[in-house]
Write a structure and sequence with these properties.
Shape: elongated
Order of helices and strands: EEHHHHHHHHH
Number of helices: 9
Largest sheet: 2 strands, antiparallel
Number of strands: 2
Low-confidence stretches: 1-5, 102-125, 197-201
Length: 201
């Protein structure tokens, strides 16, 4: 059994994000590795939803964890770790998007295939892999902000207050934006699956 800083890795598996952060502040890199493994998939998903390019999303997710490590002392536990970290990922992804647009480079548009979306189950007789494919296709057709809000609210199930903290969008305005993004996603799916899709969202 591996043991670092007096705590076994098996015990750390049950640590909260906050507890892992406190261990990281003492220089415990095994706790950092555990935190990365715990959140790397969703960090990639957020970046990918904004950038629509897998290579760029992987780089942003990696850079976000590097930034996390360098600024870990700034996290005071006043909000959830995920809220704080997702904002880092979001800001870095948006910054890269702006830089790419300034360079007039094309942003790849393709389904990410990164996540199974358990929140959307009513797809007629479609198989799970087909549901995932069509959802990824539909989400990719939304605007940057719409993709981000759909990802945070429906797929990661953050509550309104958490999304406000991540995006800095006024709560009243946020509800309207999420409603519109949800409606747009449903409309896109209905056009893609006019016969198969009977109920969604």
């Amino acid at each position: 059994m591996i043991e670092t800083h007096g705590v076994t890795s098996a015990v750390k598996e049950n640590f909260s994000d906050i507890q892992l952060i406190e261990k990281i502040k003492t220089g415990d890199m095994s706790s950092f590795e555990m935190l990365v493994n715990r959140h790397k998939n969703f960090a990639f998903t957020i970046a990918d939803r904004i950038l629509q390019n897998e290579e760029d999303a992987e780089e942003v997710a990696h850079d976000a964890f590097v930034k996390l490590l360098s600024s870990v002392d700034k996290f005071k536990g006043e909000s959830k770790f995920t809220t704080w970290f997702y904002r880092i990922v979001m800001n870095m992804a948006i910054s890269r998007t702006r830089k790419k647009r300034i360079r007039t480079e094309d942003i790849d548009s393709r389904p990410s295939g990164i996540a199974e979306y358990s929140s959307f189950e009513e797809f007629g007789g479609l198989k799970a892999k087909d549901r995932t494919y069509y959802l990824n296709q539909a989400v990719s057709k939304l605007k940057d902000e719409e993709r981000l809000l759909i990802t945070l609210y429906y797929f990661d199930e953050l509550d309104m207050d958490e999304i406000v903290e991540v995006t800095k969008i006024d709560k009243g305005n946020l509800k309207v934006k999420i409603f519109r993004a949800r409606k747009k996603l449903a409309d896109v799916l209905r056009k893609m699956l006019p016969t198969e899709l009977e109920s969604i969202l």
